[in-house]
Design goal:
The protein is an alpha/beta fold. 44% of the residues lie in helices and 15% in strands. The chain has 8 helices and 7 strands; from the N terminus they run βαβαβαβαβαβαααβ. The chain is globular and about 50 Å long. The chain starts with 11 loop residues before the first strand and ends in an 8-residue tail after the last strand. Bound molecules: D-gluconic acid. Residues 98, 100, 146-148, 153, 156, 159, 189-191, 196-197, 200 line the site of D-gluconic acid.
Length: 255
């Protein structure tokens, strides 16, 4: 009985920004748990390459190339997925980006780009998906926050603001959609070896700081986010709502 709570058999899961990195790792994990995963991103070639790998493992996978920062493209993309494949049961709001610069010099266009990718996209995609989930009286929304949903670090204020907003959107979604049996939660990654952190990983002093600041004393690996994603996408979390589940090696638990 207990393991079946984590099965995603028969579910359709849309994962935004899943052509690489955390999004792809989560998409692969959800597909291994039985979901039909729909890969999203702007780069069709990357999506097709990821689709080939997942399909080669005998799992159900489709692609939906649209720009999550374009409201009209999001509405059209979600409508097409539901028309072609069926109702979306699980939404993983993963698409995100990072820009680093001292606050007083941060370019205005950089602020808007980070907010569009990390926050406006969550509004656009979650609204397009949940307005279809409400009449069905079921759904899972899992947004990727960050340890920066709770903590600040110099040079990444736009990213931090966007991830704090993702946490609070999650709580608002729980408040409004819980009565429709839609659970909205978030995952807060700590420091993971991903594309957006390449420069940090290459910096010995920064890696030394990550290892000293994190009880696990190491960077996380993207596959270590999969368990939390399956949990929050499955029946195992039907009474979990509005929660930010940190997967951070313990960073936010300690000083
Ligand atoms: C940085 C990093 C962090 C991590 C991650 C933490 O510049 O400090 O990019 O923001 O990537 O987002 O959850």
């Amino acid at each position: 009985m207990s393991l079946s709570l984590f099965s995603l058999e028969g579910k359709i899961a849309l994962v935004t920004g899943s052509g690489q990195g955390i999004g792809l790792a989560i998409a692969e994990g959800l597909s291994e748990a039985g979901a039909h995963v729909v890969l999203n991103g702007r780069n069709r070639a990357k999506l097709e390459a990821a689709q080939t790998v997942i399909a080669a493992a005998g799992r159900k996978v489709s692609i939906a190339p649209f720009d999550v920062t374009d409201h009209a493209a999001v509405e059209a993309g979600v409508a097409t997925i539901e028309a072609d494949l069926g109702p979306i049961d699980i939404l993983i709001n993963n698409a995100g980006m990072q820009k680093r610069a001292p606050f007083t010099e941060f370019p205005v266009e950089g602020w808007h780009e980070v907010m569009a990718t990390n926050l406006h996209s969550v509004f656009y995609v979650t609204q397009a998906v949940t307005k279809r989930m409400v009449p069905r009286k079921r759904g899972k929304v899992v947004s990727i926050g960050s340890v920066m949903s709770e903590l600040g670090r110099a040079t990444i204020i736009p990213y931090t603001a966007s991830k704090g907003a993702v946490k609070m959107m999650t709580r608002g979604l729980a408040a409004e959609l819980g009565k429709h049996n839609i659970q909205a939660n978030a995952i807060g990654p700590g420091y993971f070896a991903t594309e957006i952190n390449k420069a940090l990983i290459a910096d010995e002093a920064f890696t030394a700081w990550v290892c000293s600041r994190t009880p696990a004393a190491r960077w996380g690996e993207t596959k270590e986010l999969v368990g939390a994603a399956i949990f929050l996408s499955s029946a195992a979390s039907d009474y979990v709502n509005g929660h930010l589940l940190m997967v951070d090696g313990g960073m936010t638990a300690v000083v």
